[in-house]
Amino acid sequence: MKSEELSKKKFYQWLPEERRNFLEEEGIELSKIASDTLTRLNTLSENVVGQVRLPLGILPRLIVNEKSYCVPMAVEEPSVVAAANHASKIFNQNGGVEAVSIRNGIYGQIVLEVAHDFDLVRFTEEFPELIELANRKFASLVKHGGGVRKIEASRKDNLVFLKVLVDPAEAMGANKTNAILEFLGNKLEKQINVEQTMYAILSNYPTQLTTAKVSLDINSVGGPKVAKKIVLLSEIGQTDIYRAVTNNKGIMNGVDSVLVATGNDYRGVEAATAVWANKDGSYTSLSKWSIANDRLIGTVTIPLAIGVVGGSIKARRDIQQSFNLLGKVSAEQLAEIIAATGLANNFSALLAISTKGIQAGHMKLQARNLVATLKANEDEKAKVLEKLQESKQYTQEAAVRFLDEIRKEKN
Ligand code: MEV
Fold first, then answer.
1. CATH topology (fold) of 361-410
2. Strands 194-202 and 106-114
3. pTM for this entry
4. Quick one: pLDDT at residue 358?
């Protein structure tokens, strides 16, 4: 299309190829992308010009509630998949992870501005009818086992805060919940002494909680001394915010990897988890480790507003691939697998910190990234990797120096 014609359209209305041509004419180098992929991606997001890809790794076997799953993990940090794999082997030897969920629904919030004479008690008497009305309007959600479950109200001066609990069934439910809230917001605006609906939107407040638990024979984790160190580390994380946030980052390594691989909203889970970690008024570790009867017991609870349908899950082939790996799972099962993976990553981190330190394993894997950036053939790269690992010098400088040496030796 000619540039005068393009300038009449908004940037988001351009075809993705037009955006790419424009950027390339500006001198920006873009990665190659197949035209059908670009067209497909353009239906998923806005202003699309390409894609960012992540490696998909797997936990070949993780036992959760006596069922074995192959867990997809999409993440660029190699130690995350390696750590979860290491832990899953120890978990599996000990019978696997037990997990339970409370999945009552997610909250939506409607805030109304009300007149002085507004009667909250009379207003709440209308709620059963409102719930029925919404559930009739959103009958397809009810058919899938979900629906509006509860409305609670509180008043602060001229504002009334409504908490609407929506069970989204097998979906995460953000879109459906927002539609329900806007529908209810419109109805409520017409009630006596309600001046206006200020807003009606889903809240990411922690709900849909899943707890994962393991009970490990102390000998399978390296004996009582190691187990005691893990417990001490965990105790430090209960009160020391510097340790707590890092402990939780380790848990989210596993959680986010599975969320990304399954097309779930990791931003929502991250936001809710930060609130959950602070639920008693001070930020703390999400996991707890203790010793009882010669067993190391670990638990973690995570708010997981996730789904196995809805959003872009069906439209994305990469996400369908993850579900092929997982096999048929319900939203509850997926939440339990995610929490179990988070606990696996946490355990591996604590085990490494309590024994040989985190860097040994991390750097071994990071060496692969260093080597990948070298302009060298595969044989040279393999030799550089060997030298980096042997010498334990994990820097770009060392990689370049070893490559030089290898080439000199050859000539
Ligand atoms: C690194 O990605 C995560 C860890 O720092 C977590 C932890 O310290 O518990 C290893």
1. Helicase, Ruva Protein; domain 3 (1.10.8)
2. antiparallel
3. 0.89
4. 74
